[in-house]
Design goal:
InterPro entries: Leu-rich_rpt, Leu-rich_rpt_typical-subtyp, LRR_dom_sf, LRR_N_plant-typ
Largest sheet: 18 strands, mixed
Number of helices: 6
Family: Belongs to the RLP family.
Distance between the termini: 105 Å
Subcellular location: Cell membrane
Structural class: mainly beta
Protein name: LRR receptor-like serine/threonine-protein kinase GSO1
GO molecular function: kinase activity
Length: 545
Amino acid sequence: MRMETPFAYASMVLFIVVSCCCCCCCHGCLEVERKALLQIKESINYPNGSALPSWAGKNCCEWRKVKCDPSSSYVEIIDLKKQRNASFGKWSPNATLFSQFKNLVEIYLSDNMIQMNGSHMLQAFCGMEFLEILNIHHNLLEGVLPACLGNMPSLRVLGLARNQFTGEIPSFLSNLSSVQEIDVGSNLFDGVVSLSMFSKLSDLNTLILSDNKQLEVETEPLTWVPSFQLSSLHLAKCNLNKHHGNMIPSFISTQLYLGELDLSHNSLKGSIPTWMFYNVSNLLELKNNMFSGQFLQQPADFKFSSLEVLDISDNNVHGSLPDNFGELFPYLTLIHMSNNSLQGNIPPSFGEMLRLELLDLSNNNLTGEIPQNLTVKGELKYLILSNNSLGGEMLPRDCNLTKLKSLQLDRNHFTGAIPACLSNSPDLEYLDIRNNHLSGNLSSSLPIFPEMKVLLLGRNSFRGHIPKQLCQMQKLRFLDISNSSLSGYIPSCLNKITSWKNPSLSSNGSTLGVVISPFKNAGIKIRVVFTTKYNHMCTRVFHLL
């Protein structure tokens, strides 16, 4: 047998090393993965985009938005959030390109206008045994969820929200033994799904099924015991317990560490249970249901809540608010209680909530005056008390709302003049005090608001001339001083307000505009028409319809 020469042996070793470098990762990156990434870049930039400029050269492990395993050089993380230029339209990538990354751990593809069969897209990831995070939020993916999605043992986060997936929410999702977060909200799922299917997922902490309007979510009867403790549960707009009397899900009382709970838009009935204020620490959304009864059924046993955001608007909650409301909810920043049947006074203890930024008690039956404590300290930016039966002065005379941006007091019974202390609110952008009994000389009482955009003063008893202070409000877009007792001529300086001179808003001598509510979940629109009315003083009036 012939002996191998040292030269031949060295040549063989060199051949093996060179072969490995060509096929694998001598440059710190697998060639097959580098080529796949470059094809993805070309596709996402079609026809002439410039995203991902660092994706060049041999070592894809050094590219931005890509992370490799330092020992094997396999690509582990690809982050392509918001990379598709919206002006290029929809993106239909070759899904098989993603299947090249066998050791992928995290993939982010949200906000890219991906339009294709979502089942095909997801199948590209099904074989990835190490994949932990799959995020394709906010695209245009269609179709049903593929069965292989239930065979991903490492998956921790499944993010499919804001797409166009259809069909039923499949039971095979209960096979995702490691899953911590499931978000399939804002899709087109239908059929009936029982939350009991998730009962064995002990690591589950976030479940979002909201805004699937054809879906029917059932939680009753409670013959199942959840093994999970959720931190976030969103079940808005999903016909919750439609076949069980629209009741609040019983299992929620077992969830002791909820940070967020959203049950909005479900026609839920009954009273709001006291334990709900204990069990939820951050955000409680219960708007647009059919809740009734008093706001807090058992205040005597109630210590205090850690809630930061509370929304019970658009229900049938009645009665008075607790006098010690501020002590019970010291951490609230946003309070939405509009469109209920609340009665009595606004508790002075509201002034003890030093973090409060928004208070909306509009469209109730509240009486009395605005508490002095509410207007002298804190972070209050939005105060909305429209359409109640509040009276007295518009604001306490020593008000000091230095961060106020919007004040809505219309359709009440306030009297007196505009308080001078309102000049302490230099950031005020929106003031609506229409339909009250306010009086006084407007030209001498109206402060200058440099940030004012919407000023609605109509249907009061103001007198005097049209204030020249208006000319210093250069951001003013909408003005209503109709149905008052003003006289004189229009100040010529009003013609210099540049925000009124947008040619695109002019049509046949009238100016049409739209005011959009600046508040959370804005959707209120007011149609505004600027017209000229001739009376005995030939005064032009900007009239709000």
